[in-house]
UniProtKB/TrEMBL annotation:
SUPFAM superfamilies: Glyceraldehyde-3-phosphate dehydrogenase-like, C-terminal domain, NAD(P)-binding Rossmann-fold domains
Annotated signal peptide: 1-34
Name of the molecule in the record: Gfo/Idh/MocA family oxidoreductase
Organismal lineage: Bacteria, Pseudomonadati, Bacteroidota, Cytophagia, Cytophagales
Keywords, ordered alphabetically: Signal
Keyword Transcription regulation: no
Record-level Gene Ontology MF annotations: nucleotide binding
Record-annotated Gfo/Idh/MocA-like oxidoreductase bacterial type C-terminal domain positions: 197-281
Entry keyword Signal: yes
Domain Gfo/Idh/MocA-like oxidoreductase N-terminal: 40-159
Naturally occurring in which organism (per UniProt): Runella rosea
InterPro entries registered for this protein in UniProt: Gfo/Idh/MocA-like_OxRdtase_N (IPR000683), Gfo/Idh/MocA_oxidrdct_glycsds (IPR050463), Gfo/Idh/MocA_OxRdtase_bact_C (IPR043906), NAD(P)-bd_dom_sf (IPR036291), TAT_signal (IPR006311)
Length: 455
């Protein structure tokens, strides 16, 4: 039998235990690995769409907006009044230098051409990133940003807000259930009334520089893009999407929204090929083709099939501007005017219409056998707040970059095809090459102007 410990030995044991606990407190703390309860956030871009993004983040009870950035001091002033106490910057690079230790996350709500440098800098600094669509301006940027996000293990979310809505999430579940049989074709469109004015005819590029307003930091606005003379009401604040230097055109702007539910529902992978038909007046104008995007596009992708498709390949088509889905497809919808922005999936037994921002509509074929289905029970979800909750240890985001990156690549391959209209481009996703037409590969990536290179 062992000797019973004395009171003195007990005191020695307790003293040693206390010393060990003080030396390594994390080993004894039940809260050592607890998720943070507050997200320190920086908003980069607070005008236009960025103003709406700022308001959404501010509504979350567990978000503290500590820094704001915009190249337009008018935007910055309004945002600073909305979030008193937040530190303000006109250059995102200065924000990261000063605030890297003070922030956990950022949202990137600036023109497309500056998405990648800002987002990848944030990721390299281990910050969570919410980035407006499209993820980047170029295919190669999307690939690199996706890889960086996965490697860093940060939380990400693409700004496809409707993807968190009841309509898109319901559509994803219905597609996965195969209720309209095997999928044969997808018709995607964005023929929104007034959109032509949004992507109005501009060009050629203004030759003479106008005086830059005192409130606008033009060099920072240009960022990675080539130097262009400032011209009022041409680039900033809204018409930049029309210009190849800055935006990705109509399909790049809206394509990620319309593609999202179809992509997720079918579990789509990189396309096998892409080809584009474009507006004739743009196609026949060398000046416009050098600078701007057309106001009408018809893009066709061939994708590899899977267990949900009717064959080993699957075709998706995009229509915008003066191009519309075929009349026989639009005629399938009997309950009013065909939705201007929507996706229509054609199956072997019926069709599924997914109107933008609305609930999906199942359309049985006369002799088809649409499966019985029950609409899924889904909780309401705010896309921005879902990102915040994920940053704070909640469930994975709806449109994380590993999910939305490959889809964005496909959308942007459409913009490459636009620049070489009527040319079928076979796509080698692994090598990022067009084996049958290498001349188009120059449109996969840009050369950033001096001083704005991304390391």
């Amino acid at each position: 039998m062992k000797n019973k410990p004395t009171s003195e030995s007990r005191r020695e044991f307790l003293a040693k235990a206390a010393t060990a606990a003080m030396a390594a407190p994390l080993l004894f703390s039940s809260e050592a690995n607890a998720a943070p309860t507050k997200l320190r956030h920086a908003c980069i871009g607070v005008g236009g769409m960025g103003w709406g993004d700022l308001q959404q983040f501010k509504k979350h009870a567990n978000v503290e907006i500590v820094a704001l950035c915009d190249v337009d001091e008018k935007n910055l002033k309004r945002a600073a009044e909305f979030v008193p106490g937040a530190r303000t910057y006109t250059d995102w690079r200065e924000l990261f230098k000063a605030e890297s230790g003070n922030i956990d996350s950022v949202n990137v709500s600036v023109p497309d051409h500056n998405h990648f440098p800002i987002a990848v800098e944030a990721i390299h600094r281990k910050k969570h990133v919410y980035c407006q669509k499209p993820m980047c301006h170029d295919v190669a940027e999307v690939r690199e940003l996706t890889k960086a996000a996965v490697k860093a293990g940060v939380t990400t979310q693409l700004g496809t807000q409707i993807a968190s809505g009841m309509g898109d999430r319901t559509a994803v579940q219905l597609i996965k259930q195969g209720i309209i049989g095997k999928i044969k074709h997808a018709y995607l469109c964005s023929n929104r009334p007034g959109a032509v004015a949004r992507y109005r005819l501009v060009g050629p590029r203004p030759a003479e520089a106008h005086e830059v307003p005192a409130h606008l930091h033009w060099d920072q606005w240009l960022g990675t893009a080539p130097v262009r003379p400032y011209a009022p009401d041409i680039y900033h604040p809204a018409i930049w999407r029309t210009w190849q230097d800055f935006g990705t055109g109509w399909s790049g702007d809206i394509g990620c929204h319309i593609f999202d539910a179809v992509w997720k529902g079918l579990g789509m992978k990189a396309p096998l090929s892409v080809i584009a038909e474009v507006q004739k007046s743009w196609k026949d104008s060398p000046e416009r083709r050098a600078d701007t995007w057309p106001q009408g596009n018809h893009i066709t992708w061939q994708f590899p099939g899977n267990e949900l498709t009717a064959s080993n390949t699957f075709q998706a088509e995009w229509f915008d501007g003066e191009f519309y889905p075929p009349q026989e497809i639009r005629d399938l919808y009997k309950d009013g005017e065909y939705p201007a922005e929507s996706a229509m999936l054609i199956g072997t037994e019926g069709a599924l219409l997914i109107p933008h921002q609305k609930m999906p509509v199942v359309i049985p074929f006369p002799n088809g056998k649409v499966k019985d289905y029950i609409l899924p029970t889904l909780a309401e979800r705010n896309h921005y707040h879902h990102f915040v909750d994920a940053c704070l240890g909640g469930e994975k985001t709806e449109s994380h970059f590993a999910q939305s990156g490959p889809m964005t690549e496909a959308v942007l391959l459409g913009t490459v095809a636009i620049r070489v209209p009527d040319q079928l481009l076979e796509w080698d996703s692994v090598k990022m090459k067009f084996p049958n037409y290498p001349a188009a590969e120059k449109y996969l990536r840009r050369t950033y102007r001096k001083g704005w290179e991304v390391s």
